[in-house]
Amino acid sequence: MGMNKRVAALIKERDEIRGLVPSTSFGIKDKEYGAYLTKLNPRENPNVRQALACSPDPRFQEFLERVMMPRYKKVSMQSIAKACNIDLMEFNKWWQKESTQAALAVAQTASVDITRDMVEDARTVNVVCDRCDGMTWVSAPAGLPDKTPGYRSMESGEEVLWIRDCPVCTSGKIRKPGDAHARDRVLEMSGLTKKGGGMVLVQNFGGASHSSAVGELDMMTLDVTSEVG
What is the distance of C-alpha 185 from the center of its chain? Predict the structure, then answer.
């Protein structure tokens, strides 16, 4: 005599962390597992599918194969996962690890462009002089000594204005140093300075053997600090 369907639906199995949960045969009743997999959406999410395909664990590869098969289309994903012997906590830990690796990959890919931007920020550039606004001259009062550089009159309608050469620039532009923090990071990344400041000086001992060179100087560093005086 077959088992009563109502009784069979109540059969549960013990999970190490969650305690009693619906068995593999009745995984569809595991609502918590189902809600998690629905949110993860492995049937539609290409990132999840790629991670499943690349997993060294054959259980996750089998899960991917089954969820994508038409014959399993109407089978709940939690039932498929349980049939592959993957419990909820194990699936959750696997995805946390995979999503972390995916995030690192995105950061590593973007780091190339970020480094280029950092180098540009570190460069000294020419900018418009903030004293003369790029005009190369500034207003001057009347009566300045004739030897004042560029001192001359300029007519503006019926009014006569006096001007002189900009005391800051000669071409309307000045050099602006690059961002100090960006410079420190670029030099640190290139190995020319050590972390926290200080220039690394590598000494070449010519034909000296490695052992003798190390004997004289294992490593030479030169700390460069700013002086106030």
Answer: 15
- Kindly list the distances between the CA atom of residue 17 and the CA atoms of 26, 76, 82, 88, in Å, as whole numbers in the listed order: 19, 22, 15, 9
The HSE-up count of residue 26 (CA atoms within 13 Å, CB side) is 14
Angle (nearest 5°) at CA 31 between 30 and 34: 90
In the block, tokens 């550039």 appear at 125
- Alpha carbons 195 and 51: distance in angstroms, whole number: 36
Tally of CB atoms within 10 A around 42:
23
pLDDT tens, residue by residue, 149-191: 999 988 877 788 999 999 999 899 999 999 999 999 998 988 8
Name every residue whose Cβ is closer than 8 Å to that of residue 166 and which is 6 or more positions away in sequence. Answer: 129, 131, 132, 135, 136, 137, 138, 172
4: tokens are: 């009563």
For residue 185, what is the enclosing H or E element? helix 180-190
Query: What does the domain layout of the chain look like in residue ranges?
Result: 9-106, 125-174, 191-222
If DSSP codes are grouped into helix, strand and coil, which group holds residue 160?
Answer: strand
Q: Using CA atoms, how far apart are residues 24 and 138, in angstroms rounded to an integer?
A: 85
Q: Is the overall model pTM greater than 0.85, yes or no?
A: no
Amino acid letter at 123? R
Tokens of 183: 């410079």
24 is written with which tokens? 């593999």
What the block records as the tokens of 73 is 């289309």
